[in-house]
Write a structure and sequence with these properties.
- This protein has about 675 residues and is an alpha+beta fold.
- It has three domains: about 220 residues, no CATH class; about 260 residues, Immunoglobulin-like; about 150 residues, Serine Threonine Protein Phosphatase 5, Tetratricopeptide repeat.
- The strands form six sheets. Strands 7, 8, 9, 11 and 12 form a five-stranded antiparallel sheet that branches.
- α3 packs parallel to α10.
- It starts with a helix and ends with a helix.
Amino acid sequence: MTMMRKIQRVIIGISILALSALVLVQAKTKVKEIPENYRKWLNEEIFYIITPIEKDVFLKLQSNRERDLFIEAFWKQRDPTKGTEKNEFCDEHYRRLNYANRRFRGTGRPGWKTDRGKVYIILGEPMEIRIFQGMDAYYPSEVWYYQGLSGYGLPQAFHLLFYQKGRIGDYILYNPAFDGPWNLMSNYIGNPGDYLESFYALDDIEPELAQVSISLIPGESVIHYPSLASSILLQNIDIAAIKKIKDKYAEKFIKYKDIVGVEYSVNYVESESQVQIIQGESGIYFVHFSIEPQNISVASFEDSIYTNLEFNGIIRDKQGNTIYQFEKSVPLKFTVEQFKKMRYRPFSFTDMFPLVPGDYRFSILVKNSVSKEFTSFDRDLRIFSEITSTQMSPLLLGFNAIKSTSPHDTNKPFVVNNIQIYSQARNSFISKDNMYIFFQIFTLPEKMRGNGFLNYVIYKEEKEYFTVTYPMDKYQDNLSFIERIPLEKFVPGYYKIRVSLLDEKENEVTSQQEDFEITPATYLPRPWVIAKSLIESGEPHIYYILGRQLMNKKDYVNARIWLEKAHLTEPNNLNYGFHLAQTNFYMKKYKEALDILLPFSEMGKNNYEFNYLMAKTYQALSEYDRAIKILDDAVLQFGLNVSLLNSLGECYIQLGNREEALGALEKSLEINPNQEKIEDLVRSLKK
């Protein structure tokens, strides 16, 4: 059967082998270029309550669909009762906006643009409004009284003064620092700028108004004019509406909107995370990480509570090339009684993986497939290929450390020398806790193993609060160190611990420090830790991961070393054998590649990549008939694609069969016309 007839029998399909999502830098759209309804939303409806980051992200969106989704996410972040249909914040905001437009409509501008409208939208209804109608001696004024807004960074109680200068136009928000009592009086003949003189003049006319003109804070004793506290108050009102907003979701929205899917993009969940690079006993570096979502939504069915989390992690080098990628699904299922006990404790998901030396960006995306929520984190990683001087790793502070009796716990996250370290990113402790300090020291000089010291100093408000020094011979391990410090005598507050390696003369060689806090609480809800390691299957899989990472870095020589170790340990594993053969192929060791592939012929017959590599290996060894046989079968099994057709054309050329070569290459150009080399080859064959 000729190649052309085989092509006619094949149903053409598209096979997608792998896709990597890239986050593109979005061009910023000018406000005037977006549709009018979105322009009104941005420049009028939420003008006072949107953060600069949210506005910047909104202007980078390219479609109305994206803008609608962002607006949905915007209100969800402000919803005080998430999970219910009603959004009380949104309803109240539009009530304030409509009221401001009706009640405070200015001269030639809508109410929301006036000072009173702005304050009303941001702070809401005042507890009390005192109206001063104004006489010949002073201008019409209003004093608004607020209380109980300290959560927004405002005083517990304060006044705001609005006045109508010249008795015409809008009411202006009074600022003691810029206006002064003299600006409130229409017939003031004293010295403008003299606070005391103008205060006494206004006090004779209207004492209550005079008192507010000096300070907006009730009971403040103003020694130096103007009132500094009043100026700070007015500055903080402008940011009160955005002070408590966590706008990180907006950055995540634009970064992941094309990756997580429409139903997820509006449901970003805050999370805390930590990453620690730990060198294993074999010298391999492992990235240990944890992520603790702020909340996990669940569903119920009959007597069970369940959810499902999908993890996608990716390591890229500085050029953006993918070095390693993993995906895993973590289903969670509890009884109602179990969930009642767990619901008030956070969940911490931990994992680990090996990583070869280099500079990287580590990103992880977590999706809750039940609630359609997502969270993520990004972190820069650096692993040195060679450490030439004595260095200490960053400190890991744990609230517990438990010795494991199982030898199978070696390849579990945050387990070192069979000790499980429990920690949280926020580094919070209570006085009943013991704090466990973990770190590693690399290239420790031999003479310091017996003569050196480790010095632990804890600082409170930059002052030394606690110190202890131990000789190095106290520790059995010369790489990994764990020390316990009881916190029972520590008062609540913020601290910093500094660990230093000292030589025999107590000179510092290297050090690291970390912040932590001791809360006044008597109990801290510690997380349920869910650990399902990517590398629980053992050492061969670790070797395989390292080999694949080096392949992606195009370091085939070292990749071959690790893949060979994996293959020799498990010679029947198709993945190990295939990628070892692929590495040999890239190194032009075609005979070695073929020797590895042949025993897997039956196991890999339904695998496209295996068949393609086998064909290319025969082609490289000039065994064109065998290569054509495999390529023909692959076309029938997997359908037409450019790679298979081009390889067929090349093999037929080597055999001198121009007709079959032209048939394959011309069909390749039909699928993808943008192949200059193949076009040139076809032209040369036709000549």
